[in-house]
Amino acid sequence: MKSQTESPQESSPVIIQLATALFSFPPSFDPPSVADSFGFILEFRPDLSGIADTIIDRIQQTSGVGNASEYLGLHLRTEADAKGEWASWDDLTNTTISTALENNMKTIYVASGDKNSVARLVTKADKIGIKVVDKWSILGNGDEATYLESFNFDQQGIVDYLALMQSNIFIGSAGSSFSSHVVTRRQFLDEHDPTFNGGDTKGGRAQKDKLTGGARLGFWDMDWP
Q: Could you tell me the pTM of the whole model?
């Protein structure tokens, strides 16, 4: 690494390249102060965070029966590279709908790169009075959608990640590192950040989260919250 004679500043930042750490250095090896804070060092882009906030606000403004301002978040990981290995479409959608019914929720926010799977879920849920939305259906043809389309798939996933983080219940695939990290961070915030529960110090927001489709991979011990 080249020597740095000046302190990092916004106008002259320092880039440090790290080798892939996933599955190679368990956070449990770190002191708790490091393990609990490392994942929060970098913040998401304000513009993408702003779009996520817009989506969350519009979901919570949705009128309907039951807990109208609450929504269930689903990571529908059924793209071609996941089929046959992880949770099936039936596993994920059945778990999601049954959980929504049990908790009287009428809105599901789905994050997925599989448009056909999303369309099938929309039809399935509509038959029992549950509305399914995603970032594109909420943003419509507005300026936010046009702006978001200029980003790549992974960058667009940041918006999904933030919207799922604020869901009242989250459902995901046990084989997915994305789903696993959402659960890990939600559980951490549930225990350590009262603002995650609207000021309720007792927590509980993440207690009903579920990962379906077999045993969870080693993400529990190999990822920072």
A: 0.85
